[in-house]
Amino acid sequence: MDNNDNNRDRNKTNTDRTKDWDIGEILIRILVTAVVVGVAAFLTPGFTISSIWSLVLAAVVIALLDYLIQRFTGINASPFGRGIVGFIVAAIILYATKFIVPGFNISVWGAIIGALVIGIIDVIIPGKAM
Q1: Distance CA 101, CA 122 (A)
Q2: How far apart are the C-alpha atoms of 37 and 105, rounded to whole Å?
Q3: Which whole-number Å values give the CA distances from 92 to 44, 78, 85, 110, in the listed order?
Q4: 49 secondary structure, DSSP code
Q5: What global pTM score does this model have?
Q6: CA nearest 26: which of 59, 3, 70?
Q7: What are the residue ranges spanned by the domains of the chain?
Q8: Among 83, 75, 87, which Cα is nearest to 115's?
Q9: What pLDDT digit, counting tens, does each position of 80-124 carry?
Q10: CB-based contact 15:7 (threshold 8 Å)
């Protein structure tokens, strides 16, 4: 390997590191997540959110859990991002949020149906919900 190959490898590593999120992207993702989760809660039996603050906090928690799972495992937690694996991860994220956010109540079946509804809405709404 000559010096040019080393420079290309180093530049590739630097561009991979710069693909981190900026604050604007995080805020847009949280806003889209809040809208999508609110619609999914309205359409899904066994899935309720008691207040707007619970919805906002749930959107933050869901975006954070999605980011951490994607960062550490490489699995895209979008229900249609990775097929059945993404669908299951999205349902687990929804169900886990129940234990973190007060006023966010969801059953196991509600999480499964909610992941399906979020996947359908995610196809329709531009942006990344989960």
Answers
A1: 22
A2: 12
A3: 16, 12, 11, 11
A4: E
A5: 0.72
A6: 59
A7: 22-124
A8: 87
A9: 555 777 788 889 999 999 999 999 999 999 999 888 888 777 777
A10: no
